[in-house]
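Why should sequence recovery work at all? Because a backbone constrains its sequence more than one might expect. Tight turns favour small or flexible residues, buried strands favour hydrophobic ones, and helices have their own preferences. The token representation captures these environments compactly. In the example below, the structure is given first.
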């Protein structure tokens, strides 16, 4: 027996004697007799994490939004993450499905005897935890190496930001709702690590629906948003007077960049670099500082 086979046998006990027990974010406990070899992932951030752990070869199917890395294009698609095609998943004979806690498929798949782990990383700490749990499930030694790389990348992005940008007040609109990235979201945590002021406080939740008048009163220095015409913002009542719009300090990210920014996974360091680049280019030489006292949503 070579050393790899010995380690495998030692860790997994030649069967279920040393089966791995994992708890997911729904509080469900799953027991696995051995590392799964046929995985379907229906949450892009989990797909990307698995691939960054160098386990892409175990994927046999993904949801329609899992588009990175490009090698995934060859895999069968099983619909959307929230309401996937159960029959398509079953046909792929997976020994594990990775899903979001919000998907309606978890109980249905479990009732069919298909092991499911549901995770919903929403913060930096969640990403670190998910990396650790997936590493254990997959039998990847030192999976936390990936988290250390992410963390170091975010730190490097923060260190690259010019001093004048650090007092900038920002508003990050994640979609037209309008919904914004609040301080308690993983995107808000990244902005905080960059040293800027988020106009959406943690008490509003991770991705709150925003009262447009609140943004007018907060008067951000820079606005970040997904790909669409900036003119749409100026057409909202009162928004033409917002400093960021009046001075043209709006960063519009492409669809591909948007995918990087909105996924709590291994590309968070790249997301931090995108934010830092925007702020370095758009932040005024003298930012406005924290929100004025008494400004409330």
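From this structural description, the recovered sequence reads:
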């Amino acid at each position: 027996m070579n050393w790899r086979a010995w380690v495998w046998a030692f860790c997994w006990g030649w069967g279920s004697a040393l089966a791995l027990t994992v708890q997911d974010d729904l509080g469900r406990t799953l027991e696995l007799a051995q590392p799964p070899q046929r995985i379907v992932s229906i949450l892009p951030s989990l797909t990307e994490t698995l691939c960054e752990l160098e386990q892409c070869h175990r994927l046999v199917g993904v949801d329609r939004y899992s588009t990175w890395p490009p090698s995934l294009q060859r895999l069968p698609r099983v619909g959307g993450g929230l309401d996937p095609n159960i029959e398509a998943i079953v046909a792929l004979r997976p020994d594990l499905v990775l899903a979001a806690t919000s998907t309606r498929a978890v109980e249905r798949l479990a009732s069919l005897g298909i092991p499911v782990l549901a995770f919903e990383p929403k913060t930096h700490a969640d990403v670190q935890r998910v990396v650790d749990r997936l590493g254990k499930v997959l039998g990847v030694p030192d999976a936390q190496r990936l988290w250390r790389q992410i963390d170091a990348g975010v730190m490097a992005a923060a260190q690259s930001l010019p001093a004048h940008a650090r007092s900038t007040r920002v508003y990050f609109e994640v979609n037209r709702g309008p919904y914004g990235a609040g301080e308690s979201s993983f995107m808000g945590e990244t902005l905080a690590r960059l040293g800027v002021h988020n106009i959406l406080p943690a008490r509003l939740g991770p991705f709150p629906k925003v009262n447009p008048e609140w943004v007018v009163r907060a008067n951000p220095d820079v606005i970040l948003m997904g790909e669409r015409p900036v003119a749409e913002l100026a057409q909202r009542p009162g928004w033409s007077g917002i400093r960021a719009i009046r001075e043209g300090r709006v960063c519009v990210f492409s669809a591909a960049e948007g995918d990087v920014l909105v996924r709590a996974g291994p590309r968070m360091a790249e997301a931090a670099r995108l934010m830092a680049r925007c702020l370095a280019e758009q932040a005024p030489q003298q930012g406005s500082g924290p929100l004025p006292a008494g400004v409330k949503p």
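A few observations help interpret the result. The chain has a mean pLDDT of 90.
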